[in-house]
Write a structure and sequence with these properties.
Blueprint (H helix, E strand, L loop, with lengths): L2 H6 L14 E8 L9 E9 L2 E7 L5 H4 L5 E3 L4 E4 L1 E3 L11 H8 L4 H6 L4 H10 L2 H16 L3 E7 L6 H17 L3 E9 L10 H18 L5 E5 L7 H13 L4 E5 L7 H7 L4 E4 L5 H10 L2 E4 L1 H6 L8 H6 L4 E3 L13 H10 L5 H7 L2 H6 L17 E4 L6 H4 L6 E6 L2 E2 L9
Parallel strand pairs: 1-4, 1-5, 6-7, 7-8, 8-9, 9-10, 10-11, 11-12, 12-13
Antiparallel strand pairs: 1-2, 2-3, 5-14, 14-15, 15-16
Helix pairs in contact: 6-7, 8-9, 10-11, 14-15
The structure holds 3-[(4S)-2,5-dioxoimidazolidin-4-yl]propanoic acid and fe (iii) ion.
């Protein structure tokens, strides 16, 4: 059996036993930075001890590798990109909100449902009730769907607990997912996501709890990589959000923000003053905001799944983002209320069809720019010598196909940290 057949045989939708992908991956077309304008034809990646030992055109490969006793994987002229990065998710939560979807289809708006005690708070109830194992199982099947499409790095937010114990439970489940699956998980504390029912009418008191108790405690337990706030009419004010960012700053944690999704109350202005890694959603972003983003080096994260699912009509200002050369990332926003989606490839498609991004911009949005949005461009989103071998082999003729199909998964093989990863059924493509 040739090695090529071997790759294709990595069949079943289940976790593969850990198996090293060390060897020479040759006969590939490679987009090392996820940028279709910078490609390597006749490409070769040498994986050794889990790292990229060499990458380039086969003809240039140093003799030490060609003479070495290394397994050879013939990629069959398929495309290789960096492992995909889903940089904004609320993957861990209890229950679902299909009932609310039906209400919205009958005419209720997302804001009306939220104001009448549904929305985020109904997921908070379900998440508080779920024990850790249940939460893990419910979240794991969503993670599996993402991984099967080539995701090797994911951000997961808390924010459906809104009390110390449940926020802790969510973040612990997120960390456990990272230990149980071939994926790098970065956690974000989103304690300021919504006002819990027991704090009704006392938002400032809740923010004090977030800043003085929840954040320091969960940080001390090593559960937080970054801090996010839902700064919005139906979320927290600019002044309250600022308190959270100050508290994060004291602990040395980077910040990001749910900004300008339903209205513009100055969220991006605040976020850029704190040098936020990213501002996310941005349908109501304006030019002054974009100029501030340029100065602070803040990434724009667009979430077409939420735009689509709540049937938003106001588009994020793509032309402004391009004009000021703001890096644009794309993500699923996977959550039960506004984006119950577990397909990052579908988000590539939607960012093109709904936002008019180019297919090249879309691919950058889930590789290099998504790594920037996480503040992790030094370890993800780029294939280069010395980095962990996180890459995906795609059975496509052109990279544009990654944004073109919806429903077809052209993923042929996934290597994460130099190991064969969760790979979908693959007999034919
Ligand atoms: N914006 C979103 O899109 C999600 N959270 C947020 O702040 C929605 C969360 C939900 O409805 O459950
Ligand atoms: Fe979100």
């Amino acid at each position: 059996m040739s090695q090529d057949q071997h790759i294709q045989q990595m069949a079943t939708r289940q976790i593969q036993p850990i198996r090293s992908a060390d060897g020479i991956w040759h006969n590939a077309r490679i987009a090392p930075a996820g940028n279709p304008a910078r490609i390597i034809t006749d490409g070769t990646i040498v994986v050794r001890d889990g790292l990229i030992a060499w990458i380039g055109s086969e003809a240039d490969m140093p003799a030490e590798f060609s003479h070495a006793e290394l397994v050879r994987y013939d990629v069959g002229n398929r495309w290789i990109t960096p492992g995909l990065i889903d940089c904004h998710t609320h993957l861990v939560y209890g229950g679902n909100r299909a009932d609310e979807f039906a209400m919205r289809l009958a005419g209720a708006s997302y804001e009306e449902i939220a104001r009448s005690g549904g929305g985020i708070v109904s997921t908070v109830r379900a998440t508080r009730l779920a024990d850790e194992d249940t939460l893990f199982q419910q979240s794991a099947r969503r993670l599996e769907a993402l991984l099967a499409e080539g995701v090797t790095t994911i951000e997961i937010k808390s924010g459906y607990g809104l009390d110390l114990a449940t926020e802790r439970k969510m973040l612990q489940v997120a960390r456990r997912l990272g230990r149980s699956y071939p994926v790098t998980v970065y956690t974000t504390f989103l304690g300021a996501h919504a006002l819990p029912p027991e704090y009704q009418g006392r938002a400032d008191d809740y923010i004090k709890l977030v800043c003085e108790e929840m954040l320091p405690a969960l940080h001390a337990e090593g559960l937080i990589d970054a801090v996010d706030v839902f700064c919005e009419n139906i979320g927290f004010s600019v002044a309250q959000s600022e308190q959270v960012f100050i508290a994060a700053g004291k602990l040395g944690l980077p910040v990001k923000m749910h900004a300008d999704q339903l209205s513009n109350i100055g969220a991006t202005q605040l976020a850029t003053r704190f040098k936020a890694l990213s501002v996310d959603h941005l349908e109501h972003l304006n030019e002054v905001d974009v100029i501030a983003m340029r100065k602070s080096g803040t990434v724009a994260v667009l979430l077409p799944g939420a735009y689509y699912f709540i049937r938003e009509t106001k588009q994020p200002p793509l032309e402004l983002l391009r004009r000021y050369r703001i890096p644009i990332a794309i993500s699923t926003d996977s959550n039960p209320g506004t984006s119950p989606s577990t397909s990052l490839l579908l988000m590539l498609n939607m960012s093109c069809t709904l936002f008019r991004m180019t297919t090249a911009e879309a691919l950058m949005g889930v590789t290099a720019n998504a790594a920037l949005a996480l503040g992790k461009a030094d370890c993800h989103g780029l294939l280069e010598i010395g980095r962990a071998a996180d890459f995906v082999v795609w059975s496509v003729e052109s990279l544009a196909e990654l944004a073109y199909w919806s429903g077809l998964n052209p993923c042929n093989a996934i290597v994460r940290a130099g190991q064969f990863s969760f790979t979908p059924h693959r007999e034919r493509n």
